[in-house]
């Protein structure tokens, strides 16, 4: 009952972690706005299968565009009346080292992974979450945002490296998470990050991992990450803010 008739906006909703988070929240009765560049039809079908009572909207477009972001939030509030949960999940990773990094790729990753999270956070808070004195903002960062990225270790090939812009953007996302937590805590709006390790989704397709540096010797599943999203999204998680929860099988814990 705790989530019943809440409303969530989830970016990257067609993808692995966004899709799994949407399905888990929908199971709990949350109405969902899925946002992506690609069709979310497959995820929408799965949502209907787990809970036919929740309403879904799909918004296709580029989250780096502030006009699109505003349109998503406006339409969500028009359709559902409110927005309680924001999951800034869509992300891109140019697996490129310092020397080969281009300005174009740098901007693509920074804008998708950080700027869009800023734009969505601003648009859901002002005025909606602020007026209702309630909100749960969850940013999907990465272990790369904590440890500066993976050069070697569990990425066994050069392709497995996480990329300089990716690492920088995911670190910035953690700082954005904390800033928002500090500014909005007094309004009962929490802001937290989830930092996944290697997880089986589109973004890791074709990469080979070795699990020597991990305690749990497998890749994460999108559902593993979605569990953490659901915790931070819960009305009961009202005393947890500014945190980053690693869901990474225990990488580099000494
Ligand atoms: N899979 C992993 O190993 C892993 C590890 C750490 C962090 N993450 C993070 O998890 C998040 C989700 O990624 P995933 O692993 O589910 O990959 P994914 O490729 O399955 O999903 C990413 C989704 O984001 C969408 N997207 C990308 N750019 C967009 C844009 N400009 N506008 C709208 N939608 C856009 C894509 O179309 C895709 O559906 C990302 O932020 C990623 O960095 C993933």
Describe what this molecule looks like in 3D.
The protein has one domain: 3-Layer(aba) Sandwich (Rossmann fold). Helix content is 41%, strand content 15%. It has seven helices and seven strands; from the N terminus they run E-H-E-H-E-H-E-H-E-H-H-E-H-E. The termini are far apart. It binds nicotinamide-adenine-dinucleotide (NAD). Residues 12, 14-18, 36-38, 62-64, 89-93, 112, 140, 142, 196, 198-199, 201-204 line the site of nicotinamide-adenine-dinucleotide (NAD).
Tell how many strands the DSSP assignment holds: 7
Mean pLDDT: 94
CATH topology: Rossmann fold
Number of domains: 1
What compounds are bound to the protein? Answer: nicotinamide-adenine-dinucleotide
Quick take:
This protein is an alpha/beta fold.
Q: How are the elements arranged and paired?
A:
Blueprint: E1 7-11, H1 16-27, E2 31-36, H2 41-50, E3 56-60, H3 66-80, E4 85-88, H4 103-132, E5 135-140, H5 144-147, H6 164-184, E6 189-196, H7 222-233, E7 244-247
Parallel strand pairs: 1-2, 1-4, 2-3, 4-5, 5-6, 6-7
Residues 12, 14-18, 36-38, 62-64, 89-93, 112, 140, 142, 196, 198-199, 201-204 line the site of nicotinamide-adenine-dinucleotide.
List keywords for this structure.
254 residues; alpha/beta; Rossmann fold; binds nicotinamide-adenine-dinucleotide
């Amino acid at each position: 009952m705790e989530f019943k008739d809440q409303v969530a906006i989830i970016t990257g909703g067609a993808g692995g972690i966004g899709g799994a988070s949407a399905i888990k929240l929908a199971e709990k009765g949350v109405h969902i706005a899925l946002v992506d560049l690609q069709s979310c039809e497959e995820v929408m079908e799965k949502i209907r299968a787990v809970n036919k009572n929740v309403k879904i909207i799909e918004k296709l477009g580029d989250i780096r565009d502030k006009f699109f972001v505003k349109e998503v939030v406006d339409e969500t509030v028009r359709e559902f009346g409110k927005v309680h949960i924001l999951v800034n999940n869509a992300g891109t990773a140019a697996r490129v080292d310092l020397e080969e990094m281009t300005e174009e790729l740098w901007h693509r990753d920074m804008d998708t992974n950080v700027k869009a999270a800023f734009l969505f956070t601003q648009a859901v808070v002002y005025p909606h979450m602020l007026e209702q004195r309630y909100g749960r903002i969850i940013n999907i960062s990465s272990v790369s945002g904590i440890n500066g990225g993976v050069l070697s270790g569990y990425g066994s090939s050069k392709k497995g490296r996480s990329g300089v812009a990716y690492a920088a953007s995911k670190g910035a996302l953690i700082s954005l998470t904390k800033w928002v937590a500090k500014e909005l805590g007094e309004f009962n709006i929490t802001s937290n990050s989830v930092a996944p390790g290697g997880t089986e989704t589109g973004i890791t397709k074709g990469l080979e991992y070795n699990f020597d540096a991990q305690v749990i010797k497998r890749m994460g599943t999108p559902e593993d990450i979605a569990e953490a999203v659901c915790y931070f999204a819960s009305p009961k998680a009202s005393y947890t803010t500014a945190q980053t929860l690693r869901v990474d099988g225990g990488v580099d814990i000494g």
